[in-house]
UniProtKB/TrEMBL annotation:
Descriptive protein name: Ribose 5-phosphate isomerase A
Biological process according to GO: D-ribose metabolic process; pentose-phosphate shunt, non-oxidative branch
Species the sequence originates in: Bacteroides faecalis
Coiled coil (UniProt feature): none
Gene3D superfamilies found in the cross-reference section: 3.30.70.260, 3.40.50.1360
Length: 233
């Protein structure tokens, strides 16, 4: 199967690769920064797939030696298909991590998690020496929550309790994320539900408030992280 078809197949949560040319440009820029011996964390989403593809070209043409720590099983499978060597967070710490985002504000706060992998994405970013967030300019917003909900990964038995607690801290809309193309709710790789939430006001404390609810595994809100944002116009 051609890699483009693999890309489309993997992106079950996204029918098309929006702004593909811009994403390819930023993917090439990122891949060009890889050096021999790098340990690289890879998030998820179409920009990450495109960057892995560019990295694989360098690995095969230039005999570049590097290892990738994937944020999801899908990304891990893609690495296998592209012949990119992998390692794990048990064995190594990433020199740098690259990832996409759904929204980025002027202080580089982020909403992520349209693909549902925000727990492992956050773990990679926290474990990394340096992080690059690759976006096209459509992802830049004046205030977070303009276009995308904040995804919250929830332990299944805690669903009702968490919904109630989210309302108490100001959630104005809460929706259980549906499964792709079938009945029922989507499950993360860890077997949890995702609640897509809207808040009228997103401030610096919200990420911690979400995390402190028993039953919340992680949220897609990234406030105050030390990330380098690369924007393709
Ligand atoms: C997945 C993510 C992605 O990085 C985010 O959704 C951006 O995706 P894309 O690169 O396809 O625009 O957070 O959980």
């Amino acid at each position: 199967m051609k890699w483009e078809n693999q890309l489309i197949n993997h992106l079950q949560w996204s029918d098309t690769i929006i702004n593909r040319e811009n994403k390819e440009r930023v993917a090439r820029e990122m891949a060009a920064m890889a050096k021999d011996g790098d340990i690289i964390g890879a998030g998820s989403g179409s920009t990450v797939y495109l960057t892995l593809f560019e990295l694989s070209k360098r690995i095969h043409k230039e005999k570049l030696h590097l290892e990738v720590i994937p944020a999801s099983q899908e990304i891990s499978i893609t690495c296998v298909q592209l012949g990119i060597p992998q390692t794990t967070l048990w064995e190594k710490r990433p020199d740098w991590t690259f990832d996409g985002a759904d929204e980025v504000d002027s202080d580089h706060n982020l909403i992520k998690g349209r693909g549902g992998a925000m727990f492992k994405e956050k773990l990679l970013i926290k474990s990394s020496v340096k992080t690059f967030i690759l976006i096209d300019s459509s992802k830049l917003v004046n205030s977070l929550g303009s276009h995308f909900p904040i995804p919250v990964e929830v332990f299944p038995a805690a669903l009702s309790y968490v919904e109630h607690e989210l309302q108490k801290i100001g959630a104005s809309e809460i929706a259980l994320r549906p499964a792709h193309g079938k009945d029922g709710a989507i499950l993360t790789e860890s077997g949890n539900f995702i609640l897509d939430t809207h808040f009228n006001y997103i401030d610096a404390s919200l990420e911690q408030q979400l995390k402190s609810i028993t039953g919340v595994i992680e949220s897609g809100l990234f406030i105050g992280y030390d990330v380098n944002v690369i924007v393709s116009p």
